[in-house]
């Protein structure tokens, strides 16, 4: 039962900011915050989304729990919790949320919610049901029954309508829903880790290192991950692009088919819902120059199925015949379709745009710079030089280097190593391979490549249990298998029949006796880079549709006892890998340094007397005497500049304390000091920029800000492109320290400019400005709105309506800008609570600020000083661009409609003075409804006085608002001909919202139309459901009608409203009441409303009479 102090009420548009606040307070889980970061942009996105749904989605019910004993800042009862129930059918739903905000991970959100929608459809299908979209409780009210109240409200509604209910529940929230009758329908293994649908398996430590270096993010284990008792593996979790991945590695020192199968079985015992796999690592290449297959060390080989093969061939599985020949038997499963489709897409993309492997490898080294350096005998993960890539004839065996042969040959270290000219630092750090004594006559001469970038080959991969170091055996097996076999490796055949797998191998040797370890790290890196490139073209939604590993787990459980010893060894090896400190070192290296800690540690490590030469120098002495000048200490990295600076700080603590004491003691003085530093010549631009950033309706892109500063307002108002800053990024120089630039659009890398902190706006509009600062920089809502409106109109007035640009024009802009502005993106990308102005793509390309100006000038003008902007608005109305912006089309709203939305009454009168025919020119727009919905009452009365059309929509909106001053003049427009059509919906809206006075006005006006007999029963149920008892009694006290009571009884019993039945028992007492009550008993029995049946029987309804029941499931309860 809900606490007496808390109440349930429908939420309204006015509650939107409070709902957003409750949501962010309730949900602090890191995964949710990754989807919805707590930023002003995302909070505005939530406000807009809820505002839009409340106004435009009648099938969504927002219910709030309020605390009447505690008021918020606006004097309204505080909202403790809220829920959103969705009552829609599949054909009504459309997109669940508006397009994502700029600082949300759009692709990740798309995958997340598509997966939720797929699961919902799997469980509920097309069956009508109520969906609990959102339920959030503020932490101050948790464990007080708020969640139960909201869930039970929707469940009761579902029961009354005999439909099911569905909710996406977290593990923590499941007990609440189970108490309300929900049953867990999720598939085994699903839950918080259900998105972990991709995995990698590697065999060697360097392969694991390479794959981990490709991760965009490294995660901890999911909170609800429960490792199977027979799974001894260790895992690395993370994200690569939009895909969540889990990486498992074979035990240290173990490789081959059995070890690979052991790791796979163990992995699937804990993660049976995984869908596809990548086997990533190193392999041996088989060059076939006679067929133009020129494989080099560092290249990548990818398994590709053919008509006769799955892409992987186990060459050592078969029968040894009497005649000495070997017959291969068995077949392996091919990779899953989603991987093969992705491989096809990647091939097409690489053919058009080229390979991304060089850039991926470069990014890997940027993220993990330690990999670019050798570690003792372990080579760097970089290209090892063409002079170290030597291919010998099959008949040319390797000659091992020994100390005796070294001395006998008279070779020194310098003669063994080729010239290091044109070699990079990584190559120079390692000696050449040990083929110094091999016969150079047997070395194959190959054509020099134009680039050292790795080449990708697609063909058959041979897999077996032994290391291939014999070139003659290599060639013989290659001929037996398939002439298309171009790679040897040792693990893939152990995986292919266990779970779907794409094999990717970096080539580190040629499967001959000349093999060594020099190329293994680089080959592992190129294979991992290709896996990253492949995942980038695979849609996460396609992966989610692939079959999971349920059947594989069943097969695995039958054989798991045979693998116990191997899994223990695997655990030991992976535990050692887990102790590797490489990731921690990289994290520390990338993190910003602690300056105080650096200073102290430098002082501790320096030798006595370090830096005294500088302290004794004339330059330092002159600087101390006249600190207006600077001393430039410069030198190479690592030469001791930091140590020298620490020495200076330690030498002169008095100056340091004096400078620290001179710093401002609070934010107000800090901001004042910054403003005082702004030069006089830049003051106007700085004020304008600060006004826009403080009061703009959405974040501004740097290009938009550059254009708004290029507007002249004084001598000759207008926008001049020649006034644009040549280097847009330097715009922060106008208000250095108060504004910053950020890259918030992940799809385009667009730069946005914003205030450095929310307190900057608070300071500018406060009374804390000192007199000298206030004279120049003080602002207010009206002052800022006036300036912004003037800039918007001046910019729009100069827009030239031109034909599409030629090639030279497009070349002037960066490609990404041209693509964006030419509307490649959907038109709804920047979601607004109203329909945005549809600007031509080329106009947006030439005038970046024009879109913002067109969308929001009216909103700013509403808050501006009318006398200052009225003249400019009059001129703008006469411009050609004004008529283009608001021309009649499906994409655009009319100027009058937008003015009604924004409450721009004086502008409406200006426009109608020029052309009165505009008032009711568009049938698809209701000016009065727009003014009512946005609470611009003055605009409403002006439009009504001028003759704006009144229809049913207008009266319904006004009745729902409950404002008598709005409804009274509209009621006067009702005639006998349209009374039923107009007033029935209006009366229903008034009842549902509890506006009893509005109901009386409608009933008085429509008394002669006698419309009550048709629908009054539905009205009373709506009022009762909303808890509006005054409306209920007003309806019952109106002149009784037999059909009214009949409808009321029917609605009350169908909807299970026991309290309303009690009221009807007391009120409906005429001669025909007995028949209506008996029918009500039949309806209540048929619907299964036990309490109503008991109440009616208790009051003698049906005693001595036969009550006929329709054959339904609910009637079986009786």
Automatic annotation (TrEMBL):
One Pfam entry name: NPHP3_N
Record region (Disordered): 407-426
SUPFAM superfamilies xrefs: Acyl-CoA N-acyltransferases (Nat) (SSF55729), Ankyrin repeat (SSF48403), Purine and uridine phosphorylases (SSF53167)
Keywords: Repeat
PROSITE patterns, sorted: GNAT
MF term (GO), any: acyltransferase activity, transferring groups other than amino-acyl groups
Superkingdom, taxonomy of origin: Eukaryota
Residue stretches in coiled coil: none
Compositional bias (Polar residues): 412-422
Keyword presence, Transferase: no
The keyword Repeat belongs to this UniProt entry's keyword annotation: yes
Protein name per its UniProtKB record: Ankyrin repeat protein
InterPro entries reported in the protein's UniProt record: Acyl_CoA_acyltransferase, Ankyrin_rpt, Ankyrin_rpt-contain_sf, GNAT_dom, GPIID_WHD, NLR-like, NPHP3-like_N, Nucleoside_phosphorylase_sf
Residue span, N-acetyltransferase domain: 6-201
GO biological process: one example: nucleoside metabolic process
């Amino acid at each position: 039962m809900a606490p007496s102090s808390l109440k349930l009420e429908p939420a309204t548009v006015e509650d939107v900011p409070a709902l957003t606040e409750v949501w962010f307070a309730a949900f602090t889980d890191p995964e949710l915050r990754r989807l919805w970061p707590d930023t002003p942009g995302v909070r505005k996105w939530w406000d807009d989304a809820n505002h839009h749904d409340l106004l435009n989605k009648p099938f969504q019910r927002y219910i709030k729990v309020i605390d009447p004993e505690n008021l918020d800042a606006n004097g309204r009862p505080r909202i403790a919790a809220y829920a959103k129930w969705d009552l829609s059918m599949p054909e009504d739903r459309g997109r669940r949320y508006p397009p994502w905000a700029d600082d949300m991970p759009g692709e990740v959100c798309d995958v997340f919610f598509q997966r939720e929608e797929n699961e919902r459809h799997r469980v509920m299908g097309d069956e009508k049901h109520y969906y609990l979209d959102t339920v959030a409780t503020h932490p101050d009210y948790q464990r007080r029954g708020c969640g139960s109240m909201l869930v039970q409200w929707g469940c009761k509604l579902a029961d009354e309508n005999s439909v099911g209910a569905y909710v996406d529940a977290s593990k923590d929230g499941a007990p609440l829903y189970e108490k309300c009758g929900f049953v867990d329908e999720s598939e085994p293994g699903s839950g918080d880790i259900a998105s972990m649908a991709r995995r990698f398996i590697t065999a060697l430590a360097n392969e694991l290192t390479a794959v981990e270096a490709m991760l965009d993010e490294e995660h901890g284990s999911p909170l609800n991950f429960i490792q199977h008792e027979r799974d001894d593996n260790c895992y690395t979790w993370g994200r690569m692009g939009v895909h969540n991945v889990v990486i498992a590695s074979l035990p240290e020192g173990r490789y081959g088919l059995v070890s690979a199968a052991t790791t796979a079985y163990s992995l699937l015992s804990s993660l049976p819902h995984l869908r596809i796999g990548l086997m990533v690592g190193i392999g041996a290449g088989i060059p076939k120059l006679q067929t133009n297959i020129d494989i080099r060390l560092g290249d990548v080989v990818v398994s590709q199925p053919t008509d006769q093969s799955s892409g992987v061939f186990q060459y050592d599985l078969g029968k040894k015949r009497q005649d000495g020949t070997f017959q291969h038997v068995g077949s392996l499963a091919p990779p899953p379709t989603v991987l093969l489709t992705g491989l096809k897409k990647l091939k097409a993309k690489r053919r058009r745009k080229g390979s991304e492997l060089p850039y991926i490898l470069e990014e890997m080294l940027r993220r993990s710079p330690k990999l670019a350096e050798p570690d003792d005998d372990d080579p760097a993960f970089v290209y090892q030089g063409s002079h170290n890539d030597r291919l010998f004839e099959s008949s040319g065996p390797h000659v091992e280097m020994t100390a005796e042969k070294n001395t006998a040959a008279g070779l020194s270290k310098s003669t063994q190593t080729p010239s290091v000219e044109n070699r990079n630092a990584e190559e120079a750090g390692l000696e050449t391979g040990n083929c110094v004594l091999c016969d150079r006559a047997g070395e194959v001469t190959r054509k020099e490549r134009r680039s050292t970038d790795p080449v990708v080959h697609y063909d058959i991969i041979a897999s077996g249990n032994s290391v291939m170091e014999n070139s003659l055996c290599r060639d013989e097996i290659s001929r037996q298998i398939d002439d298309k076999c171009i790679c040897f490796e040792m693990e893939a055949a152990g995986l292919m029949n266990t779970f779907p797998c794409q094999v990717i191998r970096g080539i580190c040797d040629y499967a001959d006796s000349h093999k060594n370890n020099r190329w293994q790290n680089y080959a592992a890196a190129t294979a991992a880079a290709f896996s990253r490139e492949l995942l980038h073209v695979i849609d996460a939604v396609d992966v989610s549709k692939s079959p999971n590993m349920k059947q594989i787990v069943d097969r695995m459980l039958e054989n798991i006892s045979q693998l116990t010893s191997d899994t223990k060894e695997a655990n030991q090896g992976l535990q050692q890998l887990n102790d590797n400190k490489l990731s921690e070192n990289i994290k520390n290296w990338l993190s910003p340094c602690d300056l105080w800690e650096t200073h102290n540690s430098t002082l501790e490590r320096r030798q006595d007397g370090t830096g005294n030469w500088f302290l004794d120098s004339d330059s330092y002495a002159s600087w101390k005497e006249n600190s207006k000048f600077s001393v430039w200490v410069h030198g190479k990295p690592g030469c001791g500049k930091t140590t020298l600076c620490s020495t200076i700080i330690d030498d002169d603590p008095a100056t340091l304390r004096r400078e620290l004491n001179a710093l401002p003691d609070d934010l107000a003085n800090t901001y004042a000091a910054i403003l005082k530093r702004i030069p006089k010549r830049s003051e106007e631009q700085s004020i304008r920029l600060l006004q826009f950033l403080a009061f703009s309706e959405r974040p501004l892109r740097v290009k938009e800000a550059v254009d708004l500063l290029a507007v002249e307002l004084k001598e000759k108002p207008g926008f001049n492109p020649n006034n644009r800053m040549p280097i847009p990024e330097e715009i922060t120089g106008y208000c250095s320290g108060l504004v910053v630039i950020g890259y918030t659009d992940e799809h385009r890398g667009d730069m946005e400019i914003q205030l450095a902190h929310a307190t900057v706006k608070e300071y500018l509009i406060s009374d804390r400005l000192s007199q000298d600062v206030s004279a120049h920089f003080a602002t207010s809502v009206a002052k800022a709105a006036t300036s912004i409106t003037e800039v918007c109109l001046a910019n729009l007035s100069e827009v030239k309506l031109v034909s599409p640009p030629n090639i030279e024009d497009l070349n002037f802009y960066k490609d990404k800008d041209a693509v964006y502005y030419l509307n490649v993106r959907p038109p709804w990308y920047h979601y607004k609570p109203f329909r945005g102005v549809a600007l031509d793509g080329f106009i947006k390309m030439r005038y970046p600020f024009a879109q913002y100006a067109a969308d929001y000038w009216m909103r700013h003008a509403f808050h501006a000083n009318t006398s200052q902007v009225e003249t400019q608005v009059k001129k703008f109305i006469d411009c050609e661009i004004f008529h283009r912006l608001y021309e009649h089309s499906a994409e655009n709203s009319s100027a009058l409609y937008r003015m009604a939305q924004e409450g721009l009454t004086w502008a409406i009168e200006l426009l109608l003075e020029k052309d009165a025919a505009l008032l009711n020119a568009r049938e698809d727009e209701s000016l009065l409804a727009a003014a009512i919905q946005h609470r611009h009452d003055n605009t409403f009365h002006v439009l009504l006085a001028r003759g704006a059309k009144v229809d049913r929509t207008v009266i319904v909106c006004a009745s729902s608002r409950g404002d008598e001053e709005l409804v009274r003049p509209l009621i006067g427009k009702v005639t006998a001909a349209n009374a039923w059509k107009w007033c029935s919906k209006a009366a229903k809206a008034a009842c549902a919202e509890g506006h009893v006075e509005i109901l009386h006005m409608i009933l008085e006006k429509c008394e002669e139309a006698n419309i009550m007999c048709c629908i009054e029963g539905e009205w009373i149920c709506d009022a009762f459901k909303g808890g509006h008892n005054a409306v209920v009694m007003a309806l019952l006290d109106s002149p009784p009608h037999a059909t009214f009571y009949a409808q009321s009884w029917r609605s009350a019993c169908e909807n299970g409203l026991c309290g309303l039945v009690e009221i009807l028992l007391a009120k409906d007492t005429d001669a025909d009441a007995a028949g209506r009550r008996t029918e009500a008993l039949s309806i209540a029995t048929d619907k299964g409303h036990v309490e109503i049946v008991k109440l009616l029987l208790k009051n003698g309804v049906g005693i001595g009479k036969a009550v006929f029941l329709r054959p339904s499931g609910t009637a079986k309860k009786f």
